[in-house]
Amino acid sequence: IRARFNASGACVADVLIRRYLPTERRRLEAHFDTSSFATAIVSLSDACDYVGGLYVQAVPGVTSRRYIPLDAGDGLVHQGDCMHGVQVKDGSRLSLVAWFSDCEASLKAGHAPWVKRAAEDGNPEAMHVLGGFHETGEFGYQMDPDLAVYWIRRAAMCGNALSLCQLGLMLSDGEVDEDETEEIEAEFGEQE
Predict the structure, then answer these.
(1) Cβ(172)–Cβ(165) under 8 Å?
(2) What are phi and psi of 72, to 5 degrees?
(3) Half-sphere exposure at residue 130, Cβ-oriented, CA atoms within 13 angstroms
(4) Does the reported pTM lie above 0.90?
(5) Would you say 84 and 54 are in contact if contact means Cβ atoms under 8 Å apart?
(6) Distance CA 173, CA 60 (A)
(7) What digits encode the pLDDT tens for the residues 104-150?
(8) What's the chain look like in SS3?
């Protein structure tokens, strides 16, 4: 993690074993590991032990879903902007999951500064997540409805489908003024 993401202070924040058994949970919906600087997933099962498994996807919806075949001992490392999930259609799957913080200080403070850095660098997924943090006041970010809308709008302008949906809901709930969406409409109108 330290070498891959050039983060000399990266440290383990949490470790767990995830299991998907016929009589228990069979799926983990597509999501981002928003509170994690980086995630390492190590399969404890061979790919032949189950059907389906860990997947990544570029956008919401199963059409972009790609399953990653992992045998026991194989691993996958990603950061918080990688939408992923698990669906085990048959058999049993076990994996070790380790979440990392960028440094001890962030871990102790319960803060996720990497999200803001990525958002400011133009990452639409990070913009969406940062908007959500400002909406809820999580992970060391102040609850601020204006900043929430700002970051969600920026992500929507970059084409982030989740932010486009969220912005539509905020508009229908009266949380965002219609005039505030004109810039987004103009942006997408020019692309057609």
Answers:
(1) no
(2) -55, 125
(3) 25
(4) no
(5) yes
(6) 22
(7) 999 999 899 999 999 999 999 899 999 999 999 988 899 998 899 89
(8) CCCCCCCCCCEEEEEEEEEECCCCCCEEEEECCCCCCEEEEEECCCHHHEEEEEEEECCCCHHHEEECCCCCCCEEEEECCCCEEEEEEEECEEEEEEEEECCHHHHHHCCCHHHHHHHHCCCHHHHHHHHHHHHHCCCCCCCCHHHHHHHHHHHHHCCCHHHHHHHHHHHHCCCCCHHHHHHHHHHHHHHC
List the beta bridge partners of residue 41.
76, 97
The pair of structure tokens assigned to 65 is: 């879903």
User: CB of 99 within 8 A of CB of 39?
Assistant: yes
Residue 157 vs residues 18, 32, 122, 138, 162: alpha-carbon distances, Å? 36, 20, 11, 24, 11
Tell me the chain's radius of gyration from C-alpha atoms. Answer: 18
